[in-house]
Structures are given as C-alpha cells and as structure tokens.
C-alpha cells in the first residue's frame, strides 16, 4: 500500500471562486449549481514548477474544447482565467503548485435537467501545494489491475471531454483500492485497452512505443501529446493503435502519463510482471527526456521574464 499517496491533512490550499479568494473552510458553492446537481461542468488539472505554470495554454485550450463538446459556453476569456489563476497562486505562495480549474454551467432557479435554465458559469480555481510523489513509484514501478468497469463509450459521454462527471474513473479506482494496487486500467466495449482512472497508458515493445488512439475512447492527455512529439524528436517511433490486454501484459515495458505524476512505470498487471518486473530502459529514457522538457519550459525560462 506504500504506492498510495497519503492525503496531507493540513495541506495549504487556496480557492478562487469567480474572482474572490477563500481558504479551504470558507470556499462554498451553491447546491443549485449544475456541477453539483449533474456533474455539468468541465475541468483541468495543471501545475507549476518553480512558480511557473507548466503548459497552461494547452490546458486552457483543452478546457475550451471540453466545453465546446458539451455546448457549455464560457463567460470568461482565457486571459481572465490566467489572471485569476495567478491571483490564487500568489496567495498560495508555493513554488510547486497543483492547479485545478473548474467551470460549471452555472446555477439554476428551478430544478430542471434542461440546461437552458442555467445562469452564468461558476469559475472555481483550487490551488494547493504539489507535494512530491512517492519515489518508489518511479524507482520500483507500480502494480495495477485490469478494471471490470468499462470505460465510457465515446457515443455515450466521450472520455475526451474532461467533465465534472468522473464516476466511471471513480468506479475503476475503487476496484484498484480494493485490491491494494495503484490503479486500474479500463477496457472499452471492444475489449481493448483505453487508459487508467486518471492517466494515459503506454507500452514499449522492442524499440517502438504504442499508446491507444483517441478512437479507443480516452482523454487526450497533454502529457501524452507532448511525449508523442518528444519521442518522435528523439527518433523513437510512436504508434497510436489499439492494444489488447494480452499485448499489454506481454509488453516489454508499460507506463502511465499525467500532469501530476509525469511518467510512472507499471511493473505488474493482474499479478503478471511486465518485462523483468522493474522499470525498463525505454521508460527511464523517456523520464529523462520529459524532465529535460519540463526544465526547458520552466526553470530555463525563469531568468527571461
Ligand atoms: N488527470 N486520462 C484521464 C482520464 C485523466 O483524468 C487524465 C488527467 C489523463 C492525463 O492527462 P494529462 O496528461 O493532461 O494530465 C488521462 C488529471 C491529472 C486529474 O484529473 O487529476
């Protein structure tokens, strides 16, 4: 169970609700907000390194994309949101911060599913200290299971919409917790691999990298997108193609990618070791390449501005 990060009780946390700054206790939102009533909202998780927001523009673009797929109109400009994120970060005063940006369709006067009754958006920005992830994740890798819970079908709620309705992922992570493992990988209706409960999945076979395509029903992770470009730039071939559970279990290496966890090696799936049962060379190489990229995007730029 040492793979599961403990939640810090007294973590420092600041909330910006529609431009007003609150601490954890004071931060409240109406029970008539459609985000609360129906999960009718979109969100992003971004972060800072050394006080500099990392790929914030990409996260805002994905927020806008998710909103457009739900016909949720955003009453803020991206500049206004950046301004509010910066205000919350200034109040927090941490070098390495977690940033959650939530936009709901708003509150409604009458309880109706019909979104036309929604008033203007609620914007909620939560920032907190991004405590380092356990070293063991990266040194030893993590154990996972294949979830019995299927990933939402693209024709139902497209997993590429990062919406406030994450029940599908909640069910999957509950399965993982029950088995005492790090996470659960979900399959789609065809039985192919999609992703983890909150990160994208990859495998290495020989010299090639493979990750499921968007058509498998996944969130287009920003870390995934960047790593595809970086791998190609380093002459590593990346194929976006369907992966069966058997192919994944028999891969040389498997790893997850996400904003808050970066690249996490997976060394066991359903009791089968992956490769030699320890983080592989390709994964280690990609961790180095990605760390360098983070450094270039943040630390190296801190002197310029
Ligand atoms: N999770 N897939 C799902 C279902 C996700 O929720 C996430 C992000 C990812 C990885 O996306 P990115 O590389 O853009 O972080 C893939 C965030 C971190 C979260 O909700 O905590």
Protein architecture, described:
The protein is about 30% helix and about 25% strand. By secondary structure, it is an alpha+beta fold. Strands 7, 8, 9, 10, 11, 12, 13, 14 and 15 form a nine-stranded mixed sheet that branches. A six-stranded antiparallel sheet has the order 2-1-6-5-3-4. Strand 11, helix 6 and strand 12 (about 240) form a beta-alpha-beta unit. The longest helix is centred in the C-terminal third of the chain and has 17 residues, at about 280-295. The radius of gyration is 20 Å and the shape is globular. The structure holds N-(5'-phosphopyridoxyl)-D-alanine (PDD). N-(5'-phosphopyridoxyl)-D-alanine (PDD) binds next to helix 6 and strand 13.
Taking all Cα atoms into account, the compactness measure Rg is: 20 Å
Oligomerization category of the chains in this entry: single chain
Structural class: alpha+beta
What are the secondary-structure elements, in order, as H or E? EEHEEHHEEHEHEEEEHEHEEEHH
Overall residue-averaged pLDDT value: 94
* Proportion in helices: 25-40%
Could you say which small molecules are bound to this protein?
N-(5'-phosphopyridoxyl)-D-alanine
**Which residue ranges are poorly predicted, with pLDDT under 50 across at least 5 consecutive positions?**
1-8
Number of helices: 9
Relative strand content: 25-35%
Distance between the termini: 43 Å
Number of strands: 15
Q: Which of globular, elongated, flat, extended, rod-shaped describes the shape?
A: globular
Major sheet description:
9 strands, mixed
């Amino acid at each position: 169970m040492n793979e599961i990060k403990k939640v810090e009780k007294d973590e420092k946390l600041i909330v910006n609700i529609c431009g007003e700054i609150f601490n954890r206790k004071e931060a409240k939102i109406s029970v008539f907000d459609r985000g609360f009533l129906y999960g009718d909202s979109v969100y992003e998780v971004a972060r800072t390194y050394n006080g500099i927001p990392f790929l914030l523009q990409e996260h805002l673009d994905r927020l806008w994309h998710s909103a457009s797929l739900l016909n949720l109109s955003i009453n803020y400009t991206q500049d206004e949101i950046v301004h509010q994120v910066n205000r919350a970060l200034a109040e927090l005063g941490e070098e390495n911060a977690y940033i959650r940006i939530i936009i709901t369709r708003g509150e409604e006067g009458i309880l109706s599913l019909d979104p036309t009754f929604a008033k203007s958006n609620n914007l909620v920005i939560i920032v907190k200290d991004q405590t380092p992830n356990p070293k063991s994740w990266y040194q030893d890798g993590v154990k996972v299971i294949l979830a019995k819970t299927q990933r939402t079908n693209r024709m139902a709620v497209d997993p590429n919409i990062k919406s406030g309705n994450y029940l599908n992922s909640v069910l999957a992570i509950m399965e993982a917790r029950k088995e005492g493992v790090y996470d659960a990988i979900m399959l789609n209706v065809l039985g192919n691999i999609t992703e983890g409960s909150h990160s994208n999945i990859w495998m290495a076979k020989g010299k090639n990298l493979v990750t499921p395509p968007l058509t498998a029903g996944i969130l287009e992770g920003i870390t995934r997108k960047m790593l595809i470009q970086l791998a190609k730039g380093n002459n590593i071939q990346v194929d976006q193609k369907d992966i069966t559970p058997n192919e994944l279990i028999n891969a040389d290496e498997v790893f997850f990618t996400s904003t808050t966890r970066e690249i996490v090696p997976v060394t066991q799936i359903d009791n089968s070791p992956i490769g030699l049962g320890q983080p592989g060379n390709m994964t280690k190489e990609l961790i180095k390449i990605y760390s360098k990229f983070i450094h270039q995007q943040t630390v190296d730029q801190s002197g310029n501005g």
